[in-house]
Specification:
binds pyridoxal-5'-phosphate, 7-stranded mixed beta sheet, 431 residues, Aspartate Aminotransferase, domain 1, 4-stranded mixed beta sheet, Aspartate Aminotransferase, domain 2, globular
Length: 431
């Protein structure tokens, strides 16, 4: 495959954009080489500036669950934009969107629209702190909740008392209020709760982790979190920015039948436009300005184009149950065919999958948490990624991300993908 135009664009980009990209993982930093520049996408396919075609398993990092350039979403955008692109005033569409979200996720009694997942999580913990009059939050090692200061905290080893900032610019005084525990290990959570009695405002979790690769919750983990939060008056936040409308229509909370106090949403909810939302119990949500004292605002929040695209997508997901059946079938087919090949060849690869989220971890051990994920051979993954790209399959350019299947992936796409995986794994392991 030839990438000369992409390479030239990247050389220009690094002169004027930090690292050449507007979000770090796009830069191929962890897999080597320069990123490809995309010109257009349709269904399961994307094309780069050199004319190469890819079957896409990034799906804009989650939003494109129905495939790219989906006609009903484009139609909704066309219709709405002729009336103007933003008013900064109340619109009927925002009420419809809130009602639609509530009908899909019953734990959300009230909801506030924002413009990204980061804004949603950042606002949700401010609200949880105000509601509980407590300062600390607890997150899990390896979970990603956007780039707000409070979440950029590396896990200390074991039961570390104070967080260590993951990024320069995050002050120690912010970091000290973020506690960390191990995903799928309720004892590590109990230990933190005991060490900080009546200090923890909120526990925030990706109920199915996507941001260290796909990691499902163990049998009772989410239930145990719910019980612990109830006993300690801690606000339980499910960060469903990725899993919402993905692992089931009603997200992980529907799939595992657990009601969080607050939920954060993003990605699919915007149909490819920049949207986020946070919502939950009325008693908590009504503390937000202007009905309450907790300030949170947004010039473009509830934007007409964003609401139209998001609602068009959510309405299809709500009314056409065949979408989730197809996603499950496609995911299961990939897992089975690739899994059989790996077992037969005895390659050190572990597959995790929940519905249409899936990761091939380059290690032979089970992946239950961040420490497990860190055992992966990221160099091998990088070589695998490059080989797949060359075969025309666009995977997330990092070992620690989930691949997303859309309902636009055809059985031919899946067949081609399995063949490319077999070829690439053989190449990587037998070189
Ligand atoms: C993507 C993501 C975010 C951040 O959303 P942005 O829209 O990128 O700010 C937060 N939480 C989770 C679980 C995510 O996957």
């Amino acid at each position: 495959m030839i990438h000369t135009t992409s390479e030239k664009l990247f050389d220009r980009a690094v002169q004027v954009i930090p690292g050449g990209v507007n979000s770090p993982v796009r830069a191929f930093a962890s897999v080597g080489g320069k990123p490809v520049f995309i010109t257009k996408a349709s269904g399961s396919r994307m094309w780069d500036v050199d004319g190469n075609e890819y079957i896409d398993y990034v799906g804009s990092w989650g939003p494109m669950i129905l495939g790219h350039a989906y006609q009903p979403i484009l139609d909704a955008l066309r219709t709405v934009m002729t009336d103007g692109t933003s008013f900064g005033a109340a619109t009927e569409r925002e009420v419809e969107m809130a009602e639609l979200i509530r009908s899909i996720m019953p734990s959300i009694e009230m909801v506030r629209m924002v413009n990204s997942g980061t804004e949603a999580t950042m606002s949700a913990i401010r609200l949880a702190r105000a509601y509980t009059k407590r300062n600390k939050i607890l997150k899990f090692d390896g979970c990603y909740h956007g780039h707000a200061d409070s979440f950029l905290i590396k896990a200390g080893s074991g039961a570390a008392t104070f967080g260590v900032p993951d990024s320069p610019g995050v002050t120690a005084s912010v970091a000290e209020h973020t506690l960390t525990a191990e995903f799928n290990n309720i004892e590590s959570v109990r230990a933190q709760v005991q060490q900080h009695p009546h200090e923890i405002a909120s526990i925030i979790v990706e109920p199915v982790v996507g941001n260290m690769g796909c990691i499902p919750p163990k049998n009772n983990f989410l239930n145990d979190l719910r019980t612990l939060c109830d006993a300690e008056n801690i606000v339980l936040i499910f960060d469903e920015v990725m899993t919402g409308f993905r692992v089931a229509l009603g997200g992980a909370q529907e799939r595992f039948n657990i009601k969080p106090d607050l939920t954060t949403l993003g990605k699919i909810i915007g149909g490819g436009l920049p949207v986020g939302a946070y919502g939950g119990k009325k008693e908590i949500m009504k503390m937000i300005a202007p009905s309450g004292p907790v300030y949170q605002a947004g010039t473009l929040s509830g934007n007409p184009l964003a609401m139209a695209a998001g609602m068009a997508q959510l309405k299809i997901l709500k009314t056409d149950s065949s979408v989730y059946e197809k996603l499950e079938q496609s995911g299961s087919l990939l897992e089975k065919e690739i899994g059989q090949f790996i077992a037969q060849k005895k390659y050190s690869v572990t597959i995790n999958r929940v519905g249409s989220m899936m990761t091939l971890f380059f290690t032979s051990q089970p992946i239950r948490n961040a420490d497990d994920a860190r055992t992966c051979n990221t160099k091998l993954f990088g070589e695998f990624f490059q080989s797949m790209l060359n075969e025309g399959i666009y995977l997330p350019p990092s070992q620690f991300e989930a691949a997303f299947i859309s309902s636009a992936h055809s059985s031919k796409d899946l067949e081609k993908t399995v063949k490319a995986v077999q070829k690439s794994l053989s190449k990587v392991f037998e070189m």
